[in-house]
Amino acid sequence: MGGTVQIKCPNCGLFNTNADHCSNCGTLLSYKKRRELAHEEQKKKRIEREETKEKTSPSWIESSKNSNNPIVRIGAHIMNSIVIVVMAIGAFFAWLFTFLAA
């Protein structure tokens, strides 16, 4: 299967033989490499969005945990503990009702 492959450049229209880049204008011809570059670009954008989101909008409880005021820090930890306990109780009741229904 080692035959010659001719690809027409989408930019200038020149036919290139067994090349990843156009010999006339330098346009990338390989579909595989184009997909890889597009995938890498999307991955970079997704990581940048996640980092920006984390930096710009922390939850009030997360920002309170890092407060300089010790009373606010203690209150945030207490509220976080209460939320965790309430969620655990809710999960237990959901499991219990599912178990009893089956």
Automatic annotation (TrEMBL):
UniProt entry keywords in alphabetical sequence: Membrane, Transmembrane, Transmembrane helix
Domain of life: Bacteria
Membrane-spanning parts: 82-101
Record's compositionally biased regions (Basic and acidic residues): 40-56
Segments of this protein annotated with the region Disordered: 40-64
Name by which UniProt lists this protein: Zinc ribbon domain-containing protein
